[in-house]
Amino acid sequence: MIRPRSWLPIPLLSLLLLVVWLLLVRSLSFGHFLLGGLLAVAIPLFTYRFWDVQPQIKRPGLLLRYILRVLGDIVVANFQVAWLILNPRQRSRPHFVEYPLMLEERFTITLLASTISLTPGTVSANLRMDGKTLLIHALDAEDDEQLIEQIRERYERPLKEIYEC
Amino acid sequence: MTFYVILEGVISLFLIAGGAFAFIGSLGMAHLRDFYMRLHGPTKATTMGIGCILVGSMCYFGIADNEPVIQEVLIALFLFITAPVSAHLLAKTGLHLRLEYINKTRGRPVELHKEEIGETPVPHGTPEERAPITLEKRSSRH
């Protein structure tokens, strides 16, 4: 829970909103600065109650490497899924996997779940209420141990290093 | 001159690849066997399809207007943030409604077990969270 602090509860979000607004209208005129600034103050004021405190990024270099790796995996994932869809023999082996989470912060779990949904053959389906298990549906998995190990090494450990450690 | 011809070819390639991926993703929606498998099509193939088209658009307008194009990056960013969230919500809804899945699916999640009437429901959360808030508890807080 973020404490209300004067009229700029989340300064970073305000800045981001202003920049995105100026990029969207593609103009740097005074009027758009005013309008964007108004939105950048108003939106956080109305929504700060919904925001969690976000963990500090401890190692930005690793974050960049993580993003590049995820982008590469998305391309690979697309070719795999396209092949599974087009393959007339349909040899896919769907699988529900229960993934024991190592991460604790809600924000990082969200990042991990999004990554899992975007990358090879897996969709995150449910986060159990205790926040310790993530249910994953895999389109084509040989066995769950291997899949869990792969996700842990490739995504969860870097995320933990970047944010929690 | 040849530069523009090559560029045109590259842009066309991106557009065609994008269209093909988007089509394959939609085909998967119609073609795969059960709800949970069908979810995979739109989350992956479609993001890639839109991504390719956006790269093509960036190349074209970057050269034609001769200024850097940033809106496409914003579109891609919004897409990458929203696609996994909507997929997650759809999957959660599917589990909640206990939609059927094909028999060869391995793994039997608790969410899909049949609940029998009169038995305790599927445990979600810790015992403290599960306990209903009674009147005494509420009044003791004040």
TrEMBL record, chain A:
GO terms for molecular function: monoatomic cation transmembrane transporter activity. The keyword Metal-binding does not apply. InterPro entries: Cation_antiport_E. The keyword Cell inner membrane does not apply. One of its GO terms (cellular component) is plasma membrane. The chain crosses the membrane at residues 7-24, 30-51, 63-86. It is found in: Cell membrane. Keywords: Cell membrane, Membrane, Transmembrane, Transmembrane helix. Signal peptide: none annotated. It is a multi-pass membrane protein. Pfam families: MNHE. Belongs to the CPA3 antiporters (TC 2.A.63) subunit E family. This is Multicomponent K+:H+ antiporter subunit E. The lineage of its organism: Bacteria, Pseudomonadati, Pseudomonadota, Gammaproteobacteria, Oceanospirillales.
From TrEMBL, chain B:
Pfam families: PhaG_MnhG_YufB. Residues 114-142 are annotated as: Disordered. GO terms for molecular function: sodium:proton antiporter activity. Residues 126-142 have a biased composition (Basic and acidic residues). Keywords: Membrane, Transmembrane, Transmembrane helix. The chain crosses the membrane at residues 6-24, 45-63, 69-91. InterPro entries: PhaG_MnhG_YufB. It comes from the Bacteria. This is Multicomponent K+:H+ antiporter subunit G. It comes from Halomonas organivorans.
